[in-house]
Amino acid sequence: MQTTIKTAISFSGIGLHSGQPATVTIRPAGAYHGIWFSRSDLDVGDRMIPARWDAVNRSPLCTKLENNSGLSVSTVEHLMAALAGCGIHNALIEIDGPEVPILDGSAAPFVRGIMQRGVRALAAPLRVFKILKTVTVSDGDATATIAPSETMKIDFEIDFADAAIGHQAKSLVMNNGSFARELCDSRTFCRQSDVDTMQANGLALGGSAGENAVVFDGDKVLSPGGLRHVDEPVRHKMLDALGDLALAGAPLIGHYTGVRAGHSLTNTLLRAVFATPGAVELVECDFEMASRLPGFGLVWDEIPAVA
Predict the structure, then answer these.
(1) Chain segment 193-220, per-residue pLDDT in tens
(2) Is residue 60 part of a domain?
(3) In the chain, how many domains are there?
(4) Which of these, 53, 189, 194, 244, is most buried using a 10 Å CB contact count?
(5) Run of H or E including 264
C-alpha cells in the first residue's frame, strides 16, 4: 500500500550551486498526492511544483524542476533518492528558497531524518510503473537504458581521466534496503578544475571540499578524511540515477543501465519511455511485487552512521 512520512522533519543548509541558504520541510501527505514541492518563500502565484519527469528543466549539473509559471527548485535528486530509498510515495516538501540544501553531499542525512520520523502506511493500493520494452537513449559516448526486470536494478559505469577516479562500475539490486546500506552515504564529486570553472562562472558557491562534496585533482583526493567507499563516485552516480528515476511519478520496476550518464540523459530516458507505445504499464502492486521495491524492509541499523 501507499505510504507517507509519519511527522514533518526539516533540514537547513546551503545550496551547492546557488550558495543560498534554505530550509526544506518534508510533510505527510495523503494517498495519491504524490511528491510535490512548495516554495514557501513566496506569497503570490503558483507555488506548487510537481516532482515529475515532465516538469524537469534539463541541466547537466543537477535536476531542476519548474512549474508552468516558471517557478523552480533545483538539486532535488538526493532528496528524491532518499524518498524512493525509504519507500515514501506521498509527501509535501516545503522549501523557502530556489535550491535544496546540499548538506553533506549525499542522501544519508535525508534518509536518517525520514527513518527517525518513521513511515506510515496509507489505506490505498500502491501503483507502480512496470517496464515492458527496452528503451535506450544516448548523447555522444553516454548512454542510458531501461529494460524489463522483475525488480528495480541499477548498473552504472563511469570513466574519468583523473587517476583517483578512473574507470568504475557497479551493479546493485535495489530491494531490501540496499539503497541505504550501499549508496545513500556516497557524496557528490567533482574535479578541482571543474570547481574553479564553476566558481568563476558564479556556480558551486556553496561547495566545500570535505563538507558537501568530494574533490579530486589528478591522483589526489582533496577532501579531508578521504573517501567513504573506494568506489564512492560510481555509487553516487547510482544514487543520482535513483533520484532522477523517482520522478517517473510512481515507483519503477525495471533494469536501468547508465554509462557515463548524467541527470539530463536520465530525464531524456524517462521522456522516451513515456513516449514509446507499450514501453511501460501502470499496475497495481501486490505484496510480492512491493517486497522488491527499494524501500521495502529498511531498518534503522542498516543506515550508515556517517551522517
Answers:
(1) 777 776 666 655 555 555 788 888 888 8
(2) yes
(3) 1
(4) 244
(5) helix 263-275
How far apart are alpha carbons 230 and 123 in whole angstroms?
A: 42
Contact 284, 129 (CB under 8 A): no
| 110-121 per-position pLDDT tens digit | 999 999 999 999
Grid cell listed for 13: 543548509
Q: What is the C-alpha separation between 208 and 216, in angstroms, rounded?
A: 12
CATH of the domain at 8: 3.30.1700.10
Note whether residue 307 is domain-resident: no
Beta carbons within 10 angstroms of residue 283's beta carbon: 14
Determine which one of 78, 236, 255, 263 is catalytic.
263
Pairwise CA distance, residues 211 & 13, whole Å:
11
Instruction: Please say if 17 is a catalytic residue.
Output: no
The answer to whether the predicted template modeling score (pTM) of the entire model surpasses 0.85 is yes
The cell 504499464 sits on which residue? Answer: 281
Nearest to 238 by CA among 187, 201, 302: 187
- Pairing type for strands 119-121 and 35-39 reads unpaired
| Residue-number span of the structural domain to which 293 is assigned | 3-302
Q: From edge to edge, which strands make up the β-sheet containing 280-284?
A: 252-253, 127-131, 280-284
In degrees, to the nearest 5, what angle opens at C-alpha 166 toward C-alphas 220 and 239? 95
Per the CB < 8 A criterion, the answer to whether 295 and 107 are in contact is no
**For cell 529498511, what's the residue?**
298
Q: What are phi and psi of 24, to 5 degrees?
A: -115, 130
